[in-house]
Amino acid sequence: MVRVPKLTRAEVAQAVRNPLPYIAERWTPSPRTVRRAAMSAIVMAVVIVMTGGAVRLTGSGLGCPTWPKCTDESLTTTSEMGFHGVIEFGNRMLTYVLCAAVGWAIIAARSAKPWRRSLTRLGWVQFWVVMGNAVLGGIVVLVGLNPYTVAAHFLLTTALLSVALVTWQRVREGDGAPRPLVGKAVSQLTWLLVVAAGLLIAVGTVVTGAGRHAGDSSDVHRIPLDWKMITQLHADLAWVVVALTVALWFVLKAVDAPIGPLHRARDLFLVLMGQGVIGYVQYFTDTPEILVGLHMLGSCLVWIAVVRVLLSLRERPVSAAAVPGPAAEQPEPAAAR
Questions:
Q1: 64, 107 contact by CB (below 8 A)
Q2: Longest Cα pair distance anywhere in the chain, in angstroms?
Q3: Distance CA 70, CA 173 (A)
Q4: pLDDT of residue 16
Q5: Closest-CA residue to 100 (of 18, 43, 182, 16)
Q6: How far apart are CA 158 and CA 46, in angstroms?
Q7: How many other C-beta atoms are found inside a 10 Å radius of the C-beta of residue 158?
C-alpha cells in the first residue's frame, strides 16, 4: 500500500488557502503530461459542442425547463421528464467534465518546472470562458431557447476552443518573443482568412437560428430572415474561405515558406472540402439531424485548422527568463576557498 504522508495543521491550512502552489511544490509533471492536459481541454470543448448539438437536434433544449435546477423542485432530471430530460441534463453534467479538463490543464501548467506564468494565465482564461458560457447556457434555457442567445452560446464555445488551441501550441513552444516565419503580406492574407472564417461560422449560427431544429417541439422564436437567402450567404462565404486558403497555399509555395505553414494550409483545404460536401448534402436532403451534427463537428474542425494556420506562421524560441517553479532546487553556494 502507498504510504500517506502526514500533514501538519499549517500545511493543511496552506493547501486550503492556496492549493496551486501547494500542489506545485509536491508534483512535477512531465512535458508530455502538460501537453496531454492542454489537449484534453481541446477535446472536451469539441465534445461539449457535439452534445449541445445533440440537445438541439433531439428537441431536448427545454428537457430541463429551468436553471440552475432541472425543475423548480429537483436539481436533477426525473423519470417523468423522459428522454429529453436525460439528454439536456447530461449535457449540463458534461460541463463539469469540461471544467475538470481545464482545471487539469491549469494545475499541470502551474506545476511544470520551470513555471511558465503565460501558460497558467491561458488556463485561467479558459476557466472563466467556461464559467461565462455556463451562465449563458442557463440564460438560453430561461429565455426559451432564443436563437440569438443560442448563437452566442456557440460562438463563446468557439472562443474557448481558440484559447485552448493557443494554450496547446504554447506548451510546445518557448517563452521567447515570437519570430515570424513569413513576410508581412503573407501574414495579412492569413488574417484576412481568419476574419472570413470567423464570419462564416457566425453566419452559420444565423442559418441555424432561422432554420429547422429549434431545439424544442414548442413554438420557439426563430430569427426572422429568409432561410434560403442566409444559407446562400453562408455558402458564398464558404467559397471565399476556400479561395483564400488556396491563394495562401500558392503564396506560401511561391515565397518558399517553411513546411509547417504549407502543411497547415493543406490541412485546412482538406477540412473545408469535407465540410462543404456535408453542407451541400444536408441542404439538398432537408437538413437531416445526423448531417447537421456532423456539420457542427466540421465547424469545430474548420476553426481548429484555421487557428493552426495562423499559429504556424511564427515560432517562439525557448527563453532563458522562464520563472522557476516554487519547488525548483536552488544551487548550493560554492564553498569558500
A1: no
A2: 87
A3: 43
A4: 66
A5: 43
A6: 9
A7: 19
The strand ranges marked E within 193-334 are 314-315
Q: How far apart are CA 123 and CA 101, in angstroms?
A: 10
User: Which spans in 18-81 are helix H?
Assistant: 19-26, 31-57
Which of 310, 206, 214 lies closest to 261 in space, CA to CA? 310
- Whole-prediction pTM: 0.88
Greater confidence (328 vs 158) lies with: 158
Identify the pLDDT of residue 323. 47
Please write the tens of the pLDDT for every residue from 70-116.
888 888 888 878 888 889 999 999 999 999 999 999 999 999 999 99
Residue of 31, 24, 165, 38 lying closest to 105 (CA atoms): 38
Tell me the residue ranges of DSSP E strands in 104-260. 179-180
Q: Measuring CA to CA, how many Å separate 191 from each of 17, 241, 307?
A: 43, 11, 10
Dihedral, 228, 229, 231, 236 alpha carbons, nearest 10: 140
All cell numbers assigned to 168: 496547446
Mean of the pLDDT values across residues 243-261? 95
Report how far apart, in Å, the C-alpha atoms of 33 and of each of 29, 105, 127, 258 are: 6, 9, 19, 28
* 187 vs 12, more confident: 187
Q: What is the pLDDT of residue 321?
A: 46
